[in-house]
Amino acid sequence: MTKIVVVTSGKGGVGKTTTSAALATGLAQRGHKTTVIDFDVGLRNLDLIMGCERRVVYDLVNVINGDANLKQGLIKDKRVEDLYILPASQTRDKDALTLEGIEKVLDGLKEMGMEYIICDSPAGIEKGALTAAYFADEAVVVTNPEVSSVRDSDRILGILSSKTRKAEQGEGDIPARLLLTRYSPERVESGQMLSVEDVKEILAIDLLGVIPESQAVLNASNAGSPVILDRESDAGQAYDDSVARFLGETREHRFLTSAKKGLFGRLFGG
Amino acid sequence: MSIFSYLLPKKEKSASVAKERLQIIVARERSTRGGPDYLPQLQEELLMVVRKYVPVDQDAVNVQMDRESGCEILELNITLPEQE
């Protein structure tokens, strides 16, 4: 049984690709055969985040058009067993991404025995984002604690509830869970940032995880290594918790409060 | 929070302003979601007609579609400004 998961947000730059890479890597680390697909035709970046940019020969559009078969298009990760990447095309012709074409690719991946297919959605609510979400069984909505991101996430939730294949077939909403990224407990405590409770209340969906604002995320993308592989880092651990929750484990949410300051820090700190 | 900030006048925290603004806009956008595609334009045109006679705000006209036991109800709310 294959589960198709769309990682989406509406707004750009909130961490969809970072999350897709971490989620796919975390699932594969736990022994689940997983493919992560970049749907951002024209602006591919998943290959950089996964560190396989120099191994890209064929891409999603090549596979859809039949220029290459699925096995040729897939890049096998060198660090984690059972992890495959299907990069987006850099061609500007977005019309190449047809629903029929995508369905064929997804069916091919199912036949290969993939347990999870992670669809890294482009930003926006145009065709690319709709195509990434269409076949999904489940959604992860990546949101920053910031007004425009929350509003766009709500918009995406509305689209998910009407524009997926399941919704069209009358099977109702696909489950969607919130992943709050770039969270800064200090700023929440000083009243400058929406809290996780605020965002949950506004969007009214279940919480998958909270990823703290962390230097480790930039370091990971600099290095082309998914941040979840950085087990020492707060962000890496938070992603690992999120993957565990995704698979049904119960794990306490961490990194929601700031490190306590001493008396001196409280009196004179910012 | 430093000791000096206790001496300064209290400003409303920006996060609570953000939350309030979001709650309002999200509720408004949800109310038009799933309705027929012509609703926003209907709202726009109604607003133009009302404005020919009364100066009202952008938010003064509220159009909503409800479904009740098989029949659809178009709910129209126009808030007029208070008389001077």
UniProtKB/TrEMBL annotation, chain B:
<dbReference type="Pfam" id="PF03776">
    <property type="entry name" value="MinE"/>
</dbReference>
<keyword id="KW-0131">Cell cycle</keyword>
<dbReference type="InterPro" id="IPR036707">
    <property type="entry name" value="MinE_sf"/>
</dbReference>
<comment type="function">
    <text>Prevents the cell division inhibition by proteins MinC and MinD at internal division sites while permitting inhibition at polar sites. This ensures cell division at the proper site by restricting the formation of a division septum at the midpoint of the long axis of the cell.</text>
</comment>
<dbReference type="InterPro" id="IPR005527">
    <property type="entry name" value="MinE"/>
</dbReference>
<keyword id="KW-0132">Cell division</keyword>
<dbReference type="GO" id="GO:0051301">
    <property type="term" value="P:cell division"/>
</dbReference>
<comment type="similarity">
    <text>Belongs to the MinE family.</text>
</comment>
<protein>
    <recommendedName>
        <fullName>Cell division topological specificity factor</fullName>
    </recommendedName>
</protein>
